[in-house]
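>> received
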Amino acid sequence: MRGRFAWGIAAALPLVFLALFFVWPVVALLATGFTADGAFDASGVPAVFSDPRTWQVIGHTLTQAGLATVLSLALGLPAAFVLYRLTFAGRTVLRGLLTVPFVLPTVVVGVAFTALFGTGGPLAWTGLERSLPVIVAALAFFNVTVVMRTVGGFWSQLDSRTEQAARMLGASPTRVFCTITLPALGPAIASAAALVFLFCATSFGIVLVLGGRRFANIETEIYQLTVQFLDLRSAAVLSLAQLAIVILTLIVSSQLRRTRERAVAMRSEQHEGVRPGMRHLPVLAVFAATALLLHGLPILTLLARSFQASGGGFSVQNYVNLVVPPPESPIIGSVLQAAGRSIGIALIATAIAVVLGTLVALVLSRRPRSAGLRRSIGAFDALVMLPLGVSAVTVGFGLLLTMHQPLGVGFDLRTSVVLIPIAQALVALPLVVRTILPVLRGIDPRQRDAAAMLGASPWRVLTTIDLAMLGRSAGLALGFALAASLGEFGATAFLVRPGAQTLPVVVAELIGHQAMGSYGTALAAAVVLAALTAGIMMVAERWRTNSGGGEW
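>> returned
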């Protein structure tokens, strides 16, 4: 009974947190689409879906997500092969470096691609600024990593003896890949594609910075309807369309992930890899082009232009402005103060996400005999993943609607910074769960049974087996949570107060201001934000590698 009570508490704490700060705000915002003057009124639904603009926005969302998913798969599969099937010096460092783009703040990547393709950029001659190809490339910038790690971790555990047998029987490398390797990778590729599509369909910062209203997706349209037009009913109805896309994608992703995990469980040791040879040159060329052109060129352009004076030439004035803001600065305080504030808030959000994420992962890793409990665990898993796909704008605005003295609390939470780490923890929570859950599910249940038969209490089994195994992925989970919290922009943009902006909000404000020097200061601030998140992830990846943890 004590054990059941403890597991009930472990499940209840995250459920209460999600119910109070996610479900309630989202439902409250969605309810505004079906009410008028306090009474039920569903007339807003046909009004919104009869507007050609709505279907144009939905079309943009699906087109951008679809094209970005295809491009991410095309570039991510060669990266997975190079970094997980080939053996060479520096492979671990390259894995860590290629993980960094996934956690870079969207506002940083948007500014980097603007610096590359915008006025004064090295590729301004292409005329692609604020175009669909640039948006798709920026979305792929993040999601090549998702494909690389999801498919690569699976690929490294495939038994290579079947491929070797086919080669010995005379099959060409192309035929071996198409008839043996690719079908075996199918579950992992499909799972990665579902995740990438979800991330792209709910992208906010990239489309806001690079697309504007012309290429608006559902996420940015919700933001514009609420902030610029104060049309809450239309925004709420549009959120329903986004929620339908998210739920459908999450269902597909969950089913494919279970298939992938079952397939991985059938494998034994990881593949040791082979040395690169001449036959690998095409794959190596695609990987090198991805790393240098898609990932390296925008960031290097951002770095170079941050040292460029407004009149041309080299200058460090943009970085001086981070510490001593000029009189015409549109922000209150300095960028350095905003960076310190962001780090403090992100640390609080990370602590919340890691504690709750660990409890969620422990609950989800159980294998109950009851069919009803298994279905409940599946529903719990889906609920925890929802914040990853639901609009951050929806969450942020919903918190503003509901957090006025919630549950009888004696003060207005909206007037403080309390809600910002809560919103950031909601974003980081699914990443923590998805990072450490495969490690817990990979534990052989017979280890727990053997420990219990030898007299270990349930608490000792938990601490000496489950929590001990968690140490292998704790570094990576911590890094993901901290980097994601530090760069969160969508919900934070709603919740920050004047004079208390976080670093991503400051970058967005500077990039859109016409004051002299604001653009250069924004570039320098984006470099600082990118360096912070990249450093966090490199340390976390190194920690994970040293502790022998499993792949994300």
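>> The mean pLDDT is 82.
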